[in-house]
Design the sequence.
């Protein structure tokens, strides 16, 4: 069963990821990204990270991809990009070498180092569906609001800075607008 | 025997996340549309999140899931700022490729 779930989710992830880098239309790339994000959410559920799966669907597949599509429409760049041109000589072969080498190094590290993994920490509570309570969310909340409460508060500062910075970036200054409209 | 081999172990998940990370790297290196480059960065972030969750289960440690939560928050902030920058640069421009930024060169 878990093999079936893993196979389907891995297929979704890989098809979506290949779609992102091969589709010449930005909107198609964004929709392929949704497929990948849903596949990752499925794997989160398969590994008992239920809260993160929900956040993955809401924040990534919901908010971030909608933001991407919104910017694509706003900029009017929803036209096909010519993927045949290669502005830099030998860029693509070098990129293939770099990414395949990266995958090779990571896979080698994972396969040789998997024996070094041993359990530590206090354990993850596997949710019991019969009781109706969400143990994963409870445990994650206890971790965030006790051990990492300072980081959580700093996160709020980060979000405020990001919002204010984006508003400043995208604001049109009046005098500049007059100059450009002439 | 076969049934035992078909149970996904942590290595399967980690190898999948490595492949996803590699695909994202390739996209960032090759694609010229800055929006698509951003999507490829999201792919790489998701690969890292997947490996965090896998190792959280493997090591039986909830902190792996906690850090994924923070990575998601930072990724959301990063997308907002990055798209704001792209909109600010590309607003008065018809073609949008990363190569056009060469005219920032003084």
Sequence:
């Amino acid at each position: 069963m878990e093999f079936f779930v893993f196979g389907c989710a891995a297929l979704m992830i890989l098809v979506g990821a290949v779609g992102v880098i091969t589709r010449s239309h930005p909107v198609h790339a964004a929709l392929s990204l949704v497929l990948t994000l849903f596949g990752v959410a499925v794997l989160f559920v398969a590994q008992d990270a239920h809260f993160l799966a929900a956040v993955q669907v809401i924040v990534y597949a919901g908010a971030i991809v909608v933001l991407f599509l919104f910017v694509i429409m706003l900029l009017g760049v929803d036209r096909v990009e010519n993927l045949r041109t290669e502005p830099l000589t030998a860029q693509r072969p070098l990129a293939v070498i770099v990414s395949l080498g990266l995958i090779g190094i990571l896979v080698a590290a994972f396969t040789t180092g998997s024996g070094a993994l041993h359990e530590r920490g206090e354990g993850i509570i596997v949710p019991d569906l019969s009781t109706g309570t969400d143990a994963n969310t409870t445990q994650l909340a206890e971790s965030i609001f006790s051990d990492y409460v300072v980081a959580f508060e700093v996160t709020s500062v980060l979000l405020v800075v990001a919002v204010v910075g984006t508003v400043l970036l995208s604001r049109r200054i009046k005098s500049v607008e007059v100059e450009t409209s002439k | 025997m076969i049934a035992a081999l078909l149970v996904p172990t942590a290595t399967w998940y980690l190898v999948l996340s490595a492949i996803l990370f590699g695909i994202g790297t390739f996209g960032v290196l090759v694609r010229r549309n800055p929006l698509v480059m951003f999507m490829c960065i999201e792919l790489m972030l998701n690969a890292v999140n997947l490996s965090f969750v896998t190792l959280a289960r493997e090591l039986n440690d909830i902190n792996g899931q906690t850090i994924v939560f923070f990575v998601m928050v930072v990724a959301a902030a990063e997308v907002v700022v990055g798209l704001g920058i792209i909109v600010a640069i590309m607003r008065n421009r018809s073609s949008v490729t990363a190569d056009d930024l060469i005219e920032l060169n003084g």
